[in-house]
């Protein structure tokens, strides 16, 4: 157990997207692989539209992630990806949705929303290891918009950055999700892997 390379994963999104479900599924996948894991919600309430931040730490002694410590940043909403960039280690891995769910301040015109190109440029300043995909579109395509998060998780598992592949996440989905939503999420997983390799 002591030779597990520590991996710090910072996940961020907007309430109502299923960020915490994605966090729980990833943590359970790590556990099923026999690896030490700590996970938690560190900020925000999972109310619709609120910012949600959570962590999954594999083989780490400390239960939290400070600025510049995350090996992997998963942004389920592009503005939240940019907001969480300070946590990313230089040259770390970023996986982000390309589709906006603007916070209330933007929706009310009190704040400007950066363009996707601006967001990609900000990410590129921190790392050249970044993948972007249309998570909500994938979710809608499979039948549940929240399943877009599973697509992003599937893509992460397919990058080779974790000590297991997508088949481990597939087994967790089969073991933990209700039968009626398994098929939708398994299809999202498959499309996420395809989007990564597209």
Automatic annotation (TrEMBL):
Q: Name one GO molecular function term.
A: indolepyruvate ferredoxin oxidoreductase activity
Q: Which InterPro entries match?
A: IorB_Oxidoreductase, Pyrv/ketoisovalerate_OxRed_cat, Pyrv_flavodox_OxRed_cen
| SUPFAM superfamilies cross-referenced by the UniProt entry | Pyruvate-ferredoxin oxidoreductase, PFOR, domain III
Q: Which residues form the Pyruvate/ketoisovalerate oxidoreductase catalytic domain?
A: 15-193
Q: Does the keyword Kinase apply?
A: no
The EC number on file is 1.2.7.8
Q: Which UniProt keywords are given for this protein, alphabetically ordered?
A: Oxidoreductase, Pyruvate
Could you confirm whether the keyword Translocase appears in this record? no
| Segments forming a coiled coil | none
> Into which EC class is this enzyme placed?
oxidoreductase
- UniProt name for this protein: Indolepyruvate ferredoxin oxidoreductase
Q: Organism, per UniProt?
A: Pseudodesulfovibrio aespoeensis (strain ATCC 700646 / DSM 10631 / Aspo-2)
């Amino acid at each position: 157990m002591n030779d597990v390379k520590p991996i710090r994963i910072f996940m961020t999104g907007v309430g109502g997207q299923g960020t915490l479900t994605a966090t729980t599924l990833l943590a359970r996948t790590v556990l099923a692989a026999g690896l030490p894991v700590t996970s938690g919600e560190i900020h925000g309430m999972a109310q619709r539209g609120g910012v949600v931040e959570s962590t999954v730490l594999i083989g780490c002694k400390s239960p939290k992630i400070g600025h510049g410590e995350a090996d992997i940043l998963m942004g389920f909403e592009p503005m939240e990806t940019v907001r969480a960039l300070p946590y990313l280690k230089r040259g770390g891995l970023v996986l982000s949705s390309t589709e906006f769910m603007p916070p209330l301040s933007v929706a009310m015109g009190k704040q400007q929303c950066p363009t996707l190109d601006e967001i990609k440029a900000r990410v590129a300043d921190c790392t050249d290891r970044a993948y972007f995909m249309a998570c909500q579109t994938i979710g809608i395509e499979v039948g549940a918009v929240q399943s877009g998060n599973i697509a992003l998780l599937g893509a992460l598992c397919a990058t080779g950055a974790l000590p297991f592949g997508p088949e481990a996440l597939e087994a967790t989905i089969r073991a933990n999700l209700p039968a009626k939503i398994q098929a939708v999420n398994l299809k999202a997983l498959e499309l996420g892997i395809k989007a990564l390799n597209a």
